[in-house]
């Protein structure tokens, strides 16, 4: 039973780490824009970013399948660069997990950014600080708790991603079968004991991450 969970767990961790990295990179920029550059365009973009939280996972997966498929510009470009399609690969699973995690990563960071006293930012600008310097040396250090909360939520969401991943990456053992999909596969095959074990491992792993982060928050208060 341990052998059956090792591969999906390792793949889930790999996908979640990459997905969280990409979501964080985009999320910091978007949270900064939403917090400090409010206008009709950014408000509309904020709504668009939130859509993955509302759409059924299969619908999100379908849109990703169309966007990344072999008939799309992105899919054709990827295939030309890497010699094969992106759909039904672990890279497609990374894309699905990153898109699903992005809203949960952005919102805590945006709230933390908006709580910063604008006088600090104004004083730094008077001293000649650029926007990048403001973000790196003032905004992120002050708002680190919100940033950390966003990263944890995003990582946990990526670890549990199922519907969109199944649509765009499939269920290929050893290649795209994440732990969540492996649980679904075990239930479908009536391997209930195996499904229970994998579900317990995934739950324990997620709770452990949340507990460690909570302890770190509590220690800093």
From TrEMBL:
<dbReference type="InterPro" id="IPR035906">
    <property type="entry name" value="MetI-like_sf"/>
</dbReference>
<protein>
    <recommendedName>
        <fullName>Molybdenum transport system permease</fullName>
    </recommendedName>
</protein>
<dbReference type="InterPro" id="IPR011867">
    <property type="entry name" value="ModB_ABC"/>
</dbReference>
<keyword id="KW-0500">Molybdenum</keyword>
<feature type="domain" description="ABC transmembrane type-1">
    <location>
        <begin position="9"/>
        <end position="213"/>
    </location>
</feature>
<dbReference type="GO" id="GO:0005886">
    <property type="term" value="C:plasma membrane"/>
</dbReference>
<feature type="transmembrane region" description="Helical">
    <location>
        <begin position="15"/>
        <end position="36"/>
    </location>
</feature>
<keyword id="KW-0813">Transport</keyword>
<keyword id="KW-1003">Cell membrane</keyword>
<dbReference type="Pfam" id="PF00528">
    <property type="entry name" value="BPD_transp_1"/>
</dbReference>
<feature type="transmembrane region" description="Helical">
    <location>
        <begin position="195"/>
        <end position="213"/>
    </location>
</feature>
<keyword id="KW-0472">Membrane</keyword>
<feature type="transmembrane region" description="Helical">
    <location>
        <begin position="85"/>
        <end position="106"/>
    </location>
</feature>
<feature type="transmembrane region" description="Helical">
    <location>
        <begin position="43"/>
        <end position="65"/>
    </location>
</feature>
<keyword id="KW-1133">Transmembrane helix</keyword>
<feature type="transmembrane region" description="Helical">
    <location>
        <begin position="134"/>
        <end position="156"/>
    </location>
</feature>
<comment type="function">
    <text>Part of the binding-protein-dependent transport system for molybdenum; probably responsible for the translocation of the substrate across the membrane.</text>
</comment>
<comment type="similarity">
    <text>Belongs to the binding-protein-dependent transport system permease family. CysTW subfamily.</text>
</comment>
<keyword id="KW-0812">Transmembrane</keyword>
<dbReference type="InterPro" id="IPR000515">
    <property type="entry name" value="MetI-like"/>
</dbReference>
<dbReference type="GO" id="GO:0015098">
    <property type="term" value="F:molybdate ion transmembrane transporter activity"/>
</dbReference>
């Amino acid at each position: 039973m341990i052998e059956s969970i090792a591969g999906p767990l390792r793949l889930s961790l790999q996908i979640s780490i990459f997905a969280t990295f990409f979501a964080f990179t985009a999320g910091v920029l978007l949270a900064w824009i939403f917090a400090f550059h409010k206008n009709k365009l950014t408000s509309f973009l904020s709504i668009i970013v939130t859509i993955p939280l509302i759409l059924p996972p299969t619908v999100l997966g379908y849109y990703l399948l169309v966007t990344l498929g072999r008939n799309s510009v992105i899919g054709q470009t990827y295939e030309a660069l890497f010699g094969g399609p992106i759909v039904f690969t672990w890279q497609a699973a990374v894309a699905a997990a990153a898109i699903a995690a992005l809203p949960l990563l952005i919102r805590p960071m945006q709230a933390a950014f908006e709580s910063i006293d604008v006088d600090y930012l104004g004083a730094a600008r008077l001293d000649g600080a650029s926007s990048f310097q403001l973000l790196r040396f003032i905004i992120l250090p002050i708002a680190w708790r919100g940033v950390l909360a966003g990263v944890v939520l995003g990582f946990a969401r990526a670890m549990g991603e199922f519907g969109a991943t199944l649509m765009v990456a499939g269920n290929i053992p050893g290649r795209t079968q994440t732990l969540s999909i492996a649980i679904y596969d075990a239930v479908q095959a009536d391997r209930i004991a195996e499904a229970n074990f994998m579900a317990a491992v995934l739950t324990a792993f997620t709770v452990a991450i949340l507990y460690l982060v909570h302890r770190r928050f509590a220690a800093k208060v």
